Amino acid sequence: MEKTDCILIVDDEPEIRRLLVDYLVRNGFEALAARDGRDMWQVLERHAVDLLVLDLMLPDTDGLTLCRDLRARSNLPVLMLSARGEDADRIVGIEMGADDYLVKPFNPRELLARIKSILRRTRALPPNLRPEPVRCLRFAGWCLDTAERLLTAPDGVATPLSGGEFRLLRILLEHPNRVVTREQLIEMIHGREAEAYDRAIDVQVSRLRHRLRDDSREPQLIKTVRGQGYVLAASVEPGNTCI
Amino acid sequence: MHLTSRLGSCLRLRLHLPELPSSLYARLALILLVGLLAAQGISLWLQWGERSAVVTQARGLNFADRLAHAVSVLETVGLAQRGAALAALQYDDLSVTLVNANQVSARVPRGPIADLLAARLGSQRQVRHVPAPSGAHAGAGNGAGGGAGGAAMGTMQGDAVQRSFDVQLQDGQWARVTIRRNTESNAPALSNDLILQLLLTLVIVAAVVMIAVRQATRPLQQLAQAADRLGHDLDAAPLVPGGSTETRRAAQAFNRMQTRIQHLIRERARALAAVSHDLRTPLTRLRLRTELIDDAQLRDQMASDLASMAAMLDTTLDYLRGLQAHELVRPIDINALLESMAEDALVPGRKIRIDGLAQKPFDGRLTALRRALQNLIDNAFKFGHAVCLQVQDDALRLSITVQDDGPGIAIAELGKVVEPYYRVDSARSQAGDGVGLGLSIVRDMALMHGGELLLANRPQGGLAATIILPREQPLAALAEPVRKAV
């Protein structure tokens, strides 16, 4: 990770573009800016960009369409920004393939943390195994809605998850029937400075098993691979909605 | 209407009836049924009278015929065979004896029976009416055979009624003819067919009355239900105008009102959303600029102010959105909801204890419930440190209490704090950011679920805010009596 990550900011507000570029550069990123969709495609042709920060409302093409077009060509991570703050926008944004969503005005440090988190998640595995962003993941009768961060049980009961439970389950679902090591989990969830979270992962897994009504002594869904990590023993199907 | 109400009060006065039933359907049906029964009773009574007159007359005819028959038999046979003829003429209800002239009754019959006898026996025939022996019956003494006699006999109590007449035969001999009959056959019995017919009429008319009243009152019920639904769900489907002109017009008026309310609320939401959106861009710039400030304390203070402003925008939008309940109702694992919220609260270092468990999933709107609980939890941490969630669950209601150890709320303020944009002046507001919508949102969310928000100061200090959610949906409960009535 010697190379500096390059972030492209697409926003029609010049002051916000300037301030964001400034802020990201001060925090160790390389940052570029584009004012609209046309501009964005030009920058993407000339530069190797690692992550896109995309405003939802743009003068020429709206952010959602851009995001969908982008998804059709590459799996460049996208963090969407919106000034509307509607739940529906967040859901649609993630449906269109955005990896995360922030409402203006946001705390710049929150933005920084989200950018790092997305990069970690997409980097922890080689590019050919990087998961396609989908809204819903179905497994063993359950369904995880990644936009609403909500788990639906086979009997239709909505089962809310904490942030930690959600991230853990999502990672396991993105790598079904493959052993994910505890180190990988910690890395993807918490980042590098992670020794303190060593035990926390086990607690999280046991909580998640409880949520999934999985017997912790003889788990069927999230199995422990002794000395290595965990594996989600189920096939996972992508879907558009859990209902 | 005036008449029926007078009839109602009259019924209550005379018959000491309890209050009329409360539903309009039951009232109208009851009043109409009482009227129907009265009409049927009167018609039955009239028919009865007419029938008894006819039957009595027929009996009189029958009596006269038999008497004439007995007389003609006695006159036809010779004196020698008269004894045998007498024996042959005896029946269960008819007896013929010969009497001496000195035993003959002095009374001359009057009324219809006299005419009948005269018609059968000839007008010059000597006929006397014999009063009944004492004890058997007193009424026959009035001498009237026909209708009047029948009516008099109808009042008789006793096992038998008898009528006797003395008739002089052509050879001068008097014969006494007595006809007996049982009192129960005195009243002309109503035939089964007639009773069946009356019952059928009663049932058919009663059914038609029920259907008619039902037709008349159902639009009212539908209107009431629609008004109730509108309270919970502004986007409820409009009423389908049908039935009579009046009910169609009422439904149309209701639908217009609903459309106007929807329009007003959407306009308000749109205006506020536009304002909040326009404010977000400069706030974002300001927030980014604060990161350029070197003075860490100043930077943090400004960031905190900006965060409050953003929170106000969010709360206002939340409040407005809460009024339009689009969210899907689905079963929610309440325990998972509370535990996930408690775990997420750990990230900024807030520890929440949870007491009690929900017994089964609750059918509700997840985002609304989460927002309501988050508001209560945020409030609790704004004013206290030790925050506890208490869950109580039974078949009727699920209640979730958020307790804190803060200063509580003055009793005079308890009722006001849930009003929109109301803020307390005292200790509570010193930590005061927010626009005074937090508890209003919670209350609206509780109402949306057919429940309520209760606020109380705990005896050991601090506030207890309880969301009570009924396990049975209010709309379903409301629809219940209707289904029974059908």
Description:
The complex is a heterodimer of chains A (243) and B (486). Chain A is an alpha/beta fold. Chain A has 2 domains: 124 residues, Rossmann fold (3-Layer(aba) Sandwich); 104 residues, Arc Repressor Mutant, subunit A. Chain A is 39% helix and 21% strand. Chain A has 8 helices and 13 strands. Chain A has a 5-stranded parallel β-sheet with strand order 2-1-3-4-5, sandwiched between helices. In chain A, helix 6 packs across helix 8. Chain B is rod-shaped, with a radius of gyration of 46 Å. Chain B has 13 helices and 11 strands. Chain B is an alpha+beta fold and 486 residues long. The interface between A and B is large, with 35 and 38 residues.
How does the SSE layout of this entry go?
The complex is a heterodimer of chains A (243) and B (486).
Chain A: E1 6-10, H1 14-26, E2 30-34, H2 37-46, E3 51-55, H3 63-73, E4 78-82, H4 87-95, E5 100-103, H5 108-123, E6 136-139, E7 142-145, E8 150-152, E9 158-160, H6 163-174, E10 180-181, H7 182-190, H8 198-211, E11 222-225, E12 229-232, E13 236-239
Chain B: H1 2-15, H2 24-76, H3 82-89, E1 94-99, H4 112-121, E2 127-130, H5 147-154, E3 160-168, E4 174-182, H6 192-232, H7 245-290, H8 296-322, E5 330-332, H9 334-346, E6 352-355, E7 362-364, H10 366-383, E8 387-393, E9 397-403, H11 411-414, H12 438-448, E10 452-457, E11 463-470, H13 474-485
Parallel strand pairs in B: 6-8
Antiparallel strand pairs in B: 1-4, 2-3, 3-4, 5-7, 8-9, 9-11, 10-11
Helix pairs in contact in B: 2-4, 2-5, 2-6, 6-7, 6-13, 7-8, 8-12, 10-12
Features:
A: 243 residues; alpha/beta; Rossmann fold; Arc Repressor Mutant, subunit A; 2 domains; 5-stranded parallel sheet; 8 helices; 13 strands; 39% helix; 21% strand; globular; B: 486 residues; Beta-Lactamase; Heat Shock Protein 90; 5-stranded mixed sheet; 55% helix; disordered N terminus
